[in-house]
Amino acid sequence: RKAQEGKKKVVLAGCVPQAQPRQDYLKGLSIIGVQQIDRVVEVVEETIKGHSVRLLGQKKDNGKRLGGARLDLPKIRKNPLIEIISVNTGCLNACTYCKTKHARGDLASYPIEELVDRAKQSFQEGVCEIWLTSEDTGAYGRDIGTDLPTLLWKLVEAIPEGAMLRLGMTNPPYILEHLEEMAKILNHPRVYAFLHIPVQSASDSVLMDMKREYCVADFKQVVDFLKEKVPGITIATDIICGFPGETDEDFQETMKLVEQYRFPSLFINQFYPRPGTPAAKMHQVPAAVKKQRTKDLSQLFHSYNPYDHKVGERQRVLVTEESFDSNYYVAHNPFYEQVLVPKDPLLMGKMVEVTIYEAGKHFMKGQPVSDARVYTASITRPLAKGEVSGLTEEFRHARQNGTNWKAQPSAEIPVKTPLSSWMALQLPWQQKGGGLKILSVSLSLALLAVIVMFYYGGMKTEL
Asked: Among 384, 425, 419, which Cα is nearest to 76's?
């Protein structure tokens, strides 16, 4: 509303407009569905002209639902050292509280070869850490005749020394049958011993009302097995406080679970009924009770310090970010625990050894060891912040020199799609005189609009 009052052009994207496009507040706005983000430029251009555009369809190939936008599209990484790869969209569950399912639908996985190609290209562009993400990583491949361990072993082969792979969230049912293989993968030196497994509640009756398709014993089996087979593993989990029908006894079971496992990373959510979901129609827990339970669980979580016993340890860490206060660089040890290190530019993007000298609730502080070897994940220089990924070195060189050149495919970085000529165009922030001001949902969407606009518009130079 604020944007519209300021006469800004608005394009809205994401799960909410996809799932409820007829809401009153969406009237007259342009909308991009969850599978149409690669067409953002078309929507932006038409919106600038004063048109309202809605792209909400599902992409299909021979009647089969596809996973979403292609993985090989050029992009600007928020952090040039970290590549985030979605392995699938949608999921196999039907949780009664979830709105995402309404928008993203059933599971649709990307082929293994496409995911491996994207990972290889990322490393060739100086990336040193890859995050796999999806609504449910554990369910990967069930729709295309493969599974998560098969994908992970292929990815591990592509990870250079000094680089790391982080797995995304997985629900308990889809990892139970792969526990042995997952333990082996999580023990690999180039894979973080970290897994996010949401439990949501420690009451079987609440889990049944949520339609989570597992019981507390299943969750404990997964956690206990991985803790035994992957020493030191970090298990992160989610809990919803005040789900409809949750009794005091149900909540106390959840408190006991947290007390038992003392999760170092715990995402606490106070239940909120999403319109149109089955849970929104159930008998609600009073707001004051939900608030108190959330407070009680938060107090329990903050009552223990998971890293105190690690002071004095020597750890191998990968440095990838700057801290929020800009006083440190942020690194992660093999268990994806946060370690703050001195702000030395020589450390960024490197794997180094540190000695832990201080521990807090959510972090440790480490001092680099002077006699330790420093690992660099790739001999390739990482892209500069704001630089576009997905371009061959030859094409990038020609663009920088402004030469009129027809690109040829690179043997090292596979580019399977046509790219528009960059030589005859200037980026909007390079142009003089006021350019278009477009309010988007996020800076990422605005940046993506620029990239895809150049990607599809302009002169057609085949690669």
From this structure: 384
CA angle, 135 then 192 then 114, to 5°: 55
Task: Give residue-wise pLDDT tens across range 219-233.
Answer: 999 999 999 999 999
Q: What is the mean pLDDT of residues 187-198?
A: 97
Percentage of residues in the chain with pLDDT exceeding 90? 61
Which of 449, 395, 397, 412 minimizes the C-alpha distance to 427? 449
**What residue ranges define each of the domains in the chain, with the CATH number in brackets?**
1-57 (no CATH), 71-306 (3.80.30.20), 309-376 (2.40.50.140)
From residue 339, give the alpha-carbon distance in Å to each of 135, 312, 316, 344, 360: 27, 13, 10, 14, 10
- Write down the residue that tokens 């330790």 correspond to: 372
Q: What is the pLDDT of residue 106?
A: 85
Q: Distance (Å, rounded) from C-alpha 220 to C-alpha 447?
A: 42
Distance CA(103)–CA(123), nearest Å, equals 32
CA 195 to chain centre: 13
Question: How many CB atoms neighbour CB 331 within 10 A?
Answer: 26
Predicted structure pTM score: 0.79
Q: Is the pLDDT of residue 440 over 70?
A: no
On the CB side of 345, CA atoms within 13 Å amount to 0
Query: What average pLDDT does range 135-158 have in this prediction?
Result: 95
Q: Between these two residues, 59 and 371, which has the higher pLDDT value?
A: 371
Mean pLDDT, rounded, for 270-291: 94
pLDDT digits (tens, 9 = 90+) for 63-92: 666 666 788 888 889 999 999 999 998 888
